[in-house]
Design a protein that fits this description.
It comes from Leptospirillum ferriphilum. The protein is built from 14 helices and 17 strands. With 478 residues, it is α+β, with helices and mostly antiparallel strands. It starts with a strand and ends in a 7-residue tail after the last helix.
């Protein structure tokens, strides 16, 4: 897959002890700052920003990491952005590397008894949501119009049957923003954490008025060649398999759309369909297409898979892996038995785990204990997180072993500009007196010329070496 992808994760947090109301917010913010400062100033795993990146990102708020990614505090969350990744396994490694980066800092500081980072998308108490934002490099020629993206929207609405992280309960907090001609039956468990919070098909901002496709045009690369597709509707996956499939399937469908090969299909009311599919544990997953036909999410996914197999079989290793696994998972889902996919899909694994516990303890679905289990599934601490138990016991499929995951916190992916950025960060860390500005698209040291890195699929290692050779002052011993 000749492409670049990346993932931004906003982490939730659980504080130990009795809740102190508003004081918890200040305590949480203090914890975030301690962890951030430990990563940058003590562990020296990156460079803290010296400049003001934006009105809400002052100097010292965050910085770029030795793996080429970025860590910062944003809207009351610690947020981690992976470096640009060229392969699905690189993406999985970098994603898990972010978890390890935070957890290693917490452990080293002796704070594991005080704070836990939670990689999910909802706060059951406040009904707030936090994001898992996907980024895909596409050509500037991509048909970025409402009509051109109808097939992509249809795919995104229905892919949750594979990519959903699952959750206990339901949220109707955004219903003042949309009109849904549906009743509100009780929802004990649903497939997607973000489905209840999506209120638009297209929109340019990321807060409150969340959309299926974010339309902001911020390529962070050569704007004449590329567009960065920014998606907000996805869940934070613990499953390595679900993470890889989410990005792999989505990029293949974007290729189909760009190449004019996507099925001519759309969804009549995608916002309502997104929610309806998520709420339907019968696994019928019915929706209405633009022609008024009743189809299932499985029908839609099979249409895209059929086109992709015909167009891209044999293209490369990643593509062939995705196409094969896509077919297997749809075949298993067609049997309408979640237990058949608990080894690969987050929502099914969580549903199976929580259902078994509920039955053994004779609990109602609205028992707060189940919400706690929902959160603990996403605890990134291997000593506490319920998902990690499944993985360690071999009940959930790993794509890379822990030894490879650990490298994701400090080593950049190959074949992208993250290599050159990481190389520059290492050089600056060796020269702590240096002034610097680091951006996704370039670097500057000592207020000199800017080295622009506008091609995400280039590693820039030679250019970075030459840039530092020209711009570093001579050694006093020279």
């Amino acid at each position: 897959m000749k492409t670049v992808v990346g993932l931004e994760t906003e982490y939730g947090a659980l504080l130990s002890g009795v809740s102190q109301g508003m004081r918890d917010l200040f305590r949480q913010e203090e914890m975030f700052q301690k962890v951030r400062d430990h990563i940058f100033h003590v562990q020296r795993k990156g460079l803290i920003d010296q400049h003001q990146r934006a009105y809400d990102e002052p100097p010292g708020n965050g910085g770029f990491l030795r793996n080429g990614g970025r860590l910062y505090i944003d809207m009351g969350h610690v947020e981690y952005a992976t470096p640009e990744c060229h392969t699905l396994l690189d993406l999985v490694r970098a994603d898990r590397g972010g978890d390890l980066l935070l957890q290693q800092a917490v452990d080293e500081m002796g704070l594991s008894g005080e704070i836990s980072f939670i990689k999910n998308n909802i706060d059951h108490q406040t009904l707030a949501t936090f994001g898992s934002h996907e980024n895909y490099l596409v050509s500037r020629d991509f048909p970025f119009t409402e009509r051109g993206m109808e097939p992509l929207v249809a795919f995104l609405v229905t892919r949750q049957i594979v990519t959903g992280a699952g959750r206990v309960g339901v949220s109707y907090v955004n219903d003042s923003l949309i009109s849904l001609d549906t009743e509100r039956p009780p929802v004990h468990f649903q497939i997607s954490q973000r489905a209840d919070y999506i209120v638009n098909k297209f929109y340019q901002w990321v807060q409150m008025n969340r959309s299926i496709v974010n339309t902001r045009d911020e390529p962070l690369s050569d704007p004449l060649q590329y567009r960065r597709m920014h998606l907000l509707l996805g869940d934070s996956n613990m499953s390595q398999f679900a993470t890889a499939m989410k990005f792999g399937m989505t990029k293949i469908v974007m290729d189909l759309v760009e190449d004019g090969l996507a099925p001519a299909v759309g969804v009549r009311d995608p916002v309502q369909a997104c929610r309806a599919i998520s709420h339907d544990l019968s696994m019928r997953w019915n929706l209405q297409d633009l022609e008024g036909r009743i189809l299932s999410a499985l029908d839609m996914q099979e249409m895209f898979l059929e086109k992709a197999v015909k167009a891209y079989s044999g293209r490369d290793e990643d593509t062939d892996w995705v196409l094969e696994e896509w077919g297997k998972i749809l075949s298993d889902l067609a049997k309408k038995d979640p237990s058949l996919v608990t080894d690969r899909l987050d929502w099914a694994a969580k549903y199976n785990m929580i259902s078994a516990f509920r039955e053994s303890e004779n609990l109602e679905w609205n028992d707060p204990w189940l919400e706690s289990l929902d959160l603990e599934y996403h605890n990134i601490d291997p000593a506490k997180g319920l998902f990690h138990i499944l993985e360690e016991e071999g009940r959930h499929r790993r794509l890379i072993p822990p030894s490879i995951s650990e490298t994701g916190a400090t080593c950049p992916p190959s074949f992208t500009r993250a290599e050159g950025r990481a190389q520059a960060i290492d050089r600056i860390l060796e020269n702590p007196e240096m002034l610097y500005i680091i951006q996704w698209f370039g670097i500057q040291i000592n207020q000199g010329d800017v080295l622009y890195m506008l091609e995400p699929l280039k590693n820039y290692r030679d250019e970075v070496s030459e840039y530092f050779r020209k711009n570093l002052p001579p050694s006093p011993d020279a």
